[in-house]
Amino acid sequence: MKFMELGFRPDTFYTVESVRSVSSDLLNDLIIQVKSTKYLLHKFPMLSKCLRLKNLVSSQETETSQEQQVIQLVDFPGETEAFELCAKFCYGITITLCAHNVVAVRCAAEYLGMTEEVELGETENLVQRLELFLTSCVFKSWRDSFVTLQTTKVLPLWSEDLGITNRCIEAIANGVSVSPGEDFSRQLETGLLRNQSRRRRDEILCNAGGSKAENLRWWGEDLAELGLDLYRRTMVAIKSSNRKISPRLIGNALRIYASKWLPSIEERSADSNLVLESVISLLPEEKSSVPCSFLLQLLKMANVMNVSHSSKMELAIKAGNQLDKATVSELLIPLSDKSGMLYDVDVVKMMVKQFLSHISPEIRPTRTRTEHRRSRSEENINLEEIQEIRGSLSTSSSPPLLSKVAKLVDSYLQEIARDVNLTVSKFVELAESIPDVSRICHDDLYKAIDIYLQVHEKIEKCERKTLCRILDCKKLSVEASKKAAQNELLPLRVIVQILFVEQARATIATTTNNITINETAVLKRSFTTRREEGIEEEATTTNNITTNETAVLKRSFTTRREEGIEEERDEAKPSGGFLQSTPSRFMALCAIPRQPKKMLCKLLSISRSLSQRI
């Protein structure tokens, strides 16, 4: 920490019965009252440097009273220590100034009028010297700037008027913005490494290009010591600094401050609302700058405190953008209203909506209740629905994040289903906020419905049907279908539909197996027949080629050699043409009809027989 010494004389102030005096051969001719302390001083050294005292003494001398009057400094800023330091400066006694007392002395000097207007000598007065110390030493150091800023809360109005508060905040913001690649001496001067051990400082000195987050992570802990107003102003200055600070560092600093001043929901106070509002307003706009868990913790506090609706919505939007990183326990946000419900389902639904619009805006939401009623009340499944059942058993093309959020919501529904005051409409609205493509399997959704029916056994029949319409029986696994078929809490219509889907699955599996066996047999017979025909044709062709070649050889001996060679070439052409046409004939034989009309008729007959049984 930097300090400055002024004066060269030894300290000659002493105390007698709560009266402070100065050892001198001259009689005391000036009495000043500061707070509860009385000072016996001399006019010449004091009036030569303090304009206010000079004016007060001049006004007393015009009065006719012969008694020496006491000058009352009623509105003096600060305590008597600051006044005594100013008085010692006037006497030339050595004083030591540092970040802990410079604000108090600066305010006292301003009050006493210790400016260059009243200075008779060539040296600067106390105000000018204090400003030089602040500018050249205090504001060049993070530590000194931070300590000085903390002392301004004792004299907030004077510090604001003199510009000390703003200059301290600006110095701190610049200190945070220092890059890790700067010279080590500069980092030491600004206090960036003050919390590091000597060994660690040596390591950073050897590796000047270290991580910025590693070197600047500590400043959030320092700023957490500030009061709310100073902290908010400092964070605003840091965010608006010309040198960009990582949003993650700002988010980390906010987490440290919130953990210090917002310990828990149970221990909240009147000031907690202001702290929470300020932390929310300072949150960075960038995604993932603040963990989703921290945002949901703030949202839980905001839901039980008297926080503005806009602040709650801001938290919900920020948390919704990274909902895939949340857990079920973090989503259990308590609700403090007259509805009697334990958890805030509406804010979770808003986060789901925000996540869907942020990740994949083109995905359609889940079908409405009318569409569910129209499509799932049918008790006949045609060929297209059979193909849909087969497709549901395969891997879904849903994006991984959407599937993760869908599973998260289904698990959340299982937890809130135990709330006896949760209405069917709230349950269904949240379940339908997830798109159909995101739910690969409805097993978790069935578990949530089952828990709700067990807790709410007295709900109306129509509500029971409304609740079960969100369940897609075609997306239930075999194990879940077996349990659901034996669940007496489900409507009979749903149980029949589950049994029908399982029968359709079994029929498809049998039909597929038969089709595979029939196709294999047909292919085997066709290849056997084609092989026999190919052997016969090959034998006939070989005999024809042998006869022709014998005739050509006989004629070649009775004619000239050149004519024999030409005739031999002519006779070889028919044989080559036959061999070239063989592959096309072979490919024609491989084209085996699969009788599609017969297969479709068979599937339709199966569907009709199943419909008659139901």
Automatic annotation (TrEMBL):
PROSITE patterns: NPH3 (PS51649). GO terms for biological process: positive gravitropism. This is SKP1/BTB/POZ domain superfamily. Belongs to the NPH3 family. One of its GO terms (cellular component) is plasma membrane. It comes from Arabidopsis suecica. Keywords: Phosphoprotein, Ubl conjugation pathway. The keyword Phosphoprotein applies.
